Each structure stands twice: as C-alpha cells, then as structure tokens.
Amino acid sequence: MTQNDSEATKLNNEILTGSKKIIKKQGHWNETEHKTYLNFLQENNNHTKGQRLFKKMSQVVGTRTPSQCRSHHQKFNPQKTRCQSETGILRSKQYARKYFAQQRTLEHDSD
C-alpha cells in the first residue's frame, strides 16, 4: 500500500529507542520548546559551522527533529543579506519590492 506524504512524515517522526517510543511533534513550537531553543543558543553561541548544532539542539529540545530545529532557527535568526548590509546594494527581488512599494504609495497619495 502506498503512503501519502503526511502518513510517511508521521511514521518518520516516530522513533523507536529500545522499547520506548518517542513521538516527535509537528506544527507550531510551544513556548517551552522555544525557550529551550533560546537557552541552547545562549549556551552554544560560539559554535562553528562544522559542528552538529541542530542534532544537539534536537536532543536538548527533545520533541523536535534536527530538520525541524534547523527550520525554526532559520525562521527566528534570519541572516542579514550581505549585499544590503555591507555594500548597500539591493538584490533584484529587494529592488523590485522597494520599487512596487514606492509605486503603491505614489498611487495612494495621488488619490
């Protein structure tokens, strides 16, 4: 029988360790998980890129997989774009957004 994506994900999130079954959560992170995540970042603020940061984070949080931790980290710690922060040059998408925002304000002001 073939599985759809959600069934396969649920099966992948259930990890067997010995006789215990640890179920990894899905969906939004609750406050406890997020606070644990923030504490982990403070304790490991000098990590290098080669270290297995998200695997350690997953073990500390306990209810999330390493890929969920990586996704959460990308969402709450966005990297500043090098182009804009160092050189002041906007990327093409950023330029387009800025242009269309200006056009909207000009249209709104003329009404």
UniProtKB/TrEMBL annotation:
Residue ranges of domain Myb-like in the record: 27-75
CDD domains: SANT (cd00167)
Disordered: region residues: 65-88
Pfam family, one: Myb_DNA-binding
Biased composition (Polar residues): 76-87
Xref: InterPro entries: SANT/Myb (IPR001005)
Source superkingdom: Eukaryota
Keyword annotations from UniProtKB, A to Z: Nucleus
Coiled-coil region: none
PANTHER family per record: DEUBIQUITINASE MYSM1, SWI/SNF COMPLEX-RELATED
Protein name from the UniProt record: Myb-like domain-containing protein
Lineage: Eukaryota, Sar, Alveolata, Ciliophora, Intramacronucleata
